[in-house]
Design goal:
Order of helices and strands: HEHEHEHEHHEHHEHHEHEH
Helix content: 40-55%
CATH topology: TIM Barrel
Structural class: alpha/beta
Number of helices: 12
Largest sheet: 8 strands, parallel, barrel
Distance between the termini: 67 Å
CATH architecture: Alpha-Beta Barrel
């Protein structure tokens, strides 16, 4: 059996712009609904979502038949959790709140087998189709995507250095936390926040390092892609469900006769 294709990582390496979506409800059926839409990539969240490794596996299984690339955001830059996610078949890992070059190196090490890293070796795991993928261990180091999340002003200032760490495949900006660090809590669309992000993104692009982010404003998300961002998520499941149900109820309230 061949090593499974990692379309998200291939897209980053080829320079293709990729449209994504956030999967946060920790439910395989919800993940399947979203996957059927055909986004280029989906992010299965563990940092700000109630899921565990078992629910992530269910979500990966639900997404797999529909062609979207997939990335899992670990709850923290923790080698033990990352090992479990990789063994479970996560092809790409987003590491939250990375604050230094040293932390970026630790993230990479967690994804790679020795001698390149510290990932523990197991045989019959979901990632290798339970031992059926030929030479899985020899191929895994080069086929797992590592994305570093910059979420503070200090991290943004070091974005190029962190993105230049061997084995890092891209930098993802977290505008909500960057804004909070700037004293702009809850002001995710603030021009001040995006001025900081855009300045760093230009430097990263000049260094050949892919950049990504999340915006729940589709017009702004499209603008970012048109401006050169490589991978941008344009929404998340809980937000779409909340806004959609609110809009439907408001439409029905307005159309319902009051007499």
């Amino acid at each position: 059996m061949k090593y499974p294709q990692n379309t998200f990582l291939e897209g980053l390496r080829s320079g293709a712009a990729q449209i994504g979506f956030w999967v946060s409800l920790a439910n395989n059926l919800t993940a399947e609904v979203v996957a059927t839409s055909g986004f280029d990539w989906l992010l299965v969240d563990m940092e700000h979502a109630p899921g565990d490794v078992a629910t992530v596996i269910g979500q990966l299984q639900a997404i797999a038949p529909h062609g979207s690339g997939v990335m899992v955001r670990a709850p923290w830059n923790d080698a033990v959790m990352v090992k479990r996610l990789l063994d479970s078949g996560a092809p790409n890992i987003l590491f939250p709140m990375v604050q230094s070059v040293e932390e970026a190196k630790a993230a990479v090490a967690a994804t790679k087998y020795p001698p390149a890293g510290i990932r523990g070796v197991a045989g019959s795991i979901r990632a290798s189709q339970f031992g059926r993928v030929e030479n899985y261990h020899a191929q895994a180091n080069d086929n797992i995507g590592v994305i570093i999340q910059a979420e503070t002003q200090a991290a943004v200032a070091q974005a190029v250095e962190m993105g230049s760490v061997e084995g890092v495949d891209g930098i993802f900006f977290g505008p909500a936390d960057i804004g909070a660090d700037m004293g702009l809590l809850g002001q995710t669309q603030s021009p001040q926040v995006w001025d900081v992000i855009r300045e760093a993104a230009v430097k990263l692009k000049a260094a050949g390092i892919p950049v990504g982010t999340l915006s729940t404003n589709p017009a702004f998300a499209a603008e970012l892609i048109n401006d050169g961002f490589d991978f941008v998520a344009c929404g998340l499941d809980s937000d779409v469900l909340a806004k959609g149900s609110d809009a439907l109820l408001a439409q029905m309230r307005a159309a319902t006769r009051k007499d």
